[in-house]
TrEMBL record:
Span of domain Alpha-L-rhamnosidase six-hairpin glycosidase: 198-520
Transmembrane segments: none
Species of provenance: Maribacter ulvicola
Pfam families: Bac_rhamnosid6H
GO process annotations (BP): carbohydrate metabolic process
InterPro entries per record: 6-hairpin_glycosidase_sf, 6hp_glycosidase-like_sf, Bac_rhamnosid6H
Gene3D superfamilies noted in UniProt: 1.50.10.10, Maltose phosphorylase, domain 3 (2.60.420.10)
Protein name, entry field: Alpha-L-rhamnosidase
Length: 584
């Protein structure tokens, strides 16, 4: 029996996995091991950004760190990377791993005359500025949620693996004087969910292609044991933030167990009458996510499991409507951070969300065969629609009003959403702003917003999308993958407020992935219906010459290709799996 248990544990922990890596990963990714469907792979640095010494006196053979090794120490290793320190100079180096990742670092050392442990200070960073920073100060670097600045001890002729955070850059400093230390490798230990990219998107605009892929990768990194919002900070299940992430998962990865696992976690963590995460709108997002999840995957048995809690939640929400049909929700009244100090925006957004939630509740009750509650919740939604919030000028709340049919979609688009370009956007509610623009048939305008706003992060060196982004900050700032330039701001460390001041700001936030599902929904034109059994194909190419891609369904992979001719007519080719109903 003991041998059997030992064999099972061995299999689970160190089983070598040869399945294909997702297409966003390059050939530099080394062999990987897998635990369950979580995998780990080791990556060599792609670039040396900075060294404290360029004379060769304190840092030698630094180019060796950029060469892929075998991960095994040996007594006869020659010409290894070398740190040499004294009282006046304790050398340091800054490495770039080429792409944001979740995980830690593995350092392997060679022989040196002193057999005591080598003390090194490690500073992980999502940006160059963060990796070069100290904890605290005006730029607010922290060790909150995950450790990113600490000292380790490395064995003589051995390896150590440490760290669990989101990062792209690593600074290493020697702590003590009088060291002469050889280091064979400094590999990033990348931990991710080992699943294929089933959905894809390609069009005639390469910038849009990169944005779609970056949104997909951002969410992929956050698909850890649960679905997080951030891999450096906000390694938590924030149910409202999950909605754009779940739409991205539906689009790219299909039905993944991390979604129901996370939805069930927050349900059980916040028994009624508590609001999920203490926020009333987040409890409404939980219902809206379940509506989307069933729409895409048609999992009736899972929906039935939610019925008791879902009905109790809808009944609780129904008690927060006054005689004038206004929502009067308690708890934390929150849409997103940019609207958090605007009561008129918050009310307009919450009123809209109440309508959307009761409409979704009515449809879900119909699916569950509860005709009495179906009619009741439809009636409540109509009652809420009689109240028209006044005075809102925020794009976020205006987008929700459009989607809830509380205001004319075309007027909302012209008078609010298109004002001042992409100023006033938020990465979280960007998805709903794009949805509202589609609701107004402004597909070309939405594509320009995607290229300007999310493309603006790419222009600053982003490989994942950020918790927050103000387009006005971009023109005065350095890229995140470059050292600070005199006279310019650090886009990461010098801006931000609320919970994302300075380097506390997360540069990998799943709620920012909205363009990925949106491009599939509206450019490829893939609209899911009938519990995922039917797909309506209705492309909107704008100025694009072609668009093509794949989409995961419960029957298999759907492939769609659209090409525009000289007269502007679109030729569509569809390859649908058996059993999937297509409407054109």
């Amino acid at each position: 029996m003991n041998n059997f248990i030992a064999n099972v544990v061995f299999f689970l922990i160190i089983q070598t996995c040869f399945s294909q890596l997702p297409p966003v990963f390059g050939d530099e990714y080394n062999d990987k091991i897998r635990f369950s469907n979580m995998a780990k792979t080791y990556i060599t640095p792609q670039k040396i950004i900075w060294k404290s010494d360029s004379t060769g006196q304190y840092i030698q053979n630094s180019s060796k760190l950029l060469k892929k090794g075998n991960g095994q120490v040996a007594v006869n290793d020659q010409n290894l990377f070398r740190f040499i320190s004294n009282d006046e100079h304790k050398p340091a180096i800054l490495l770039d791993y080429g792409k944001e990742i979740n995980g830690g670092i593995k350092i392997t050392t060679g022989i040196r005359s002193n057999k005591s442990t080598l003390k090194l200070r490690l500073r992980f960073g999502e940006s160059v500025g963060e990796a070069m920073s100290d904890i605290g100060g005006k730029q607010n670097a922290t060790n909150e949620h995950s450790m990113r600045d600490f000292i380790i001890e490395v064995p003589w002729l051995g390896s150590v693996e440490v760290g669990e955070t989101g990062f792209r850059f690593l600074r290493i400093d020697v702590v003590d004087a009088n060291e002469n230390a050889t280091i064979k490798s400094v590999e990033a230990a990348f931990v991710y969910r080992d699943i294929p990219y089933l959905g894809s998107f390609e069009c005639s605009d390469k910038r849009l292609n990169e944005i779609w892929a970056t949104g997909a990768y951002t969410v992929h990194l956050n698909m850890q044991d649960y679905l997080w919002d951030g891999i450096k900070r906000d390694r938590l299940v924030w149910v409202g933030d999950l909605h754009p992430e779940v739409m991205t998962i539906n689009t790219v990865f299909g039905k993944q167990n991390v979604v129901p696992k996370s939805l069930d976690l927050v349900r059980d963590q916040y028994p009624l009458p508590q609001w999920m995460n203490g926020i009333s709108s987040y409890s409404m997002w939980w219902i809206l996510i379940h509506k989307n999840w069933f729409d895409y995957h048609g999992d009736f048995e899972y929906l039935k499991e939610q019925q008791t809690y879902m009905v109790a939640l809808l009944e609780q929400l129904s008690t927060f409507i006054d005689k004038d049909n206004r929502e009067v929700l308690n708890g934390t009244r929150f849409l997103d951070w940019p609207t958090s100090e605007n009561p008129k925006a918050i009310h307009a957004g919450l009123q809209s969300m109440m309508i959307l939630t009761f409409e979704a509740g009515s449809e879900l009750m119909a699916t569950l065969g509860n005709n009495i509650l179906e009619k009741k919740y439809k009636k409540i939604a109509k009652k809420l629609s009689k109240h028209q919030p006044q005075g809102n000028t925020s794009k976020q709340a205006a987008a929700l009003m459009s989607l809830a049919n509380l205001a004319d979609p075309h007027e909302i688009n012209t008078e609010v959403l298109k004002q001042n370009g992409v100023q006033g956007m938020s990465t979280f509610y960007g998805y709903y702003i794009l949805e509202a623009m589609a609701n107004a048939k402004d597909y070309k305008g939405a594509l320009n917003v995607i290229k300007t706003y999310w493309g603006g992060m790419l222009d600053l060196g982003a490989t994942t999308f950020w918790e927050d982004f103000n387009i006005l900050d971009a023109s005065y700032s350095d890229r995140i993958d470059e050292l600070a330039t005199k006279g310019k701001f650090d886009i990461h460390g010098d801006f931000g407020k609320y919970c994302y001041v300075g380097f506390r700001h997360s540069l990998c936030h799943g709620w920012a992935s909205g363009p990925t599902p949106w491009l599939t929904q509206y450019v490829l034109g893939i609209q899911v219906m009938n519990g995922g059994k039917t797909i309506k194909i209705e492309p909107h190419l704008g100025d694009l010459k072609f668009a093509k891609g794949t989409f995961p369904t419960q029957f298999g992979i759907l492939t769609v290709s659209h090409e525009k001719d000289a007269q502007g007519r679109i030729k569509t080719i569809i390859d649908a799996p058996d059993g999937l109903n297509i409407i054109r």
